[in-house]
Amino acid sequence: MTEHNQVLQRIDSPADLKGLTAAERTQLAADIRETILDVMSVN
What we know:
Blueprint: H1 6-9, H2 14-18, H3 22-42
């Protein structure tokens, strides 16, 4: 994971998603996308 995955690193359970703001959910989606691309580019 890169330093850009700040929101993703804070998620430990589904309950953590409920406390996110709309902006944090948008950032989380970007973090997940970046992680997927990082993993897929290695494999």
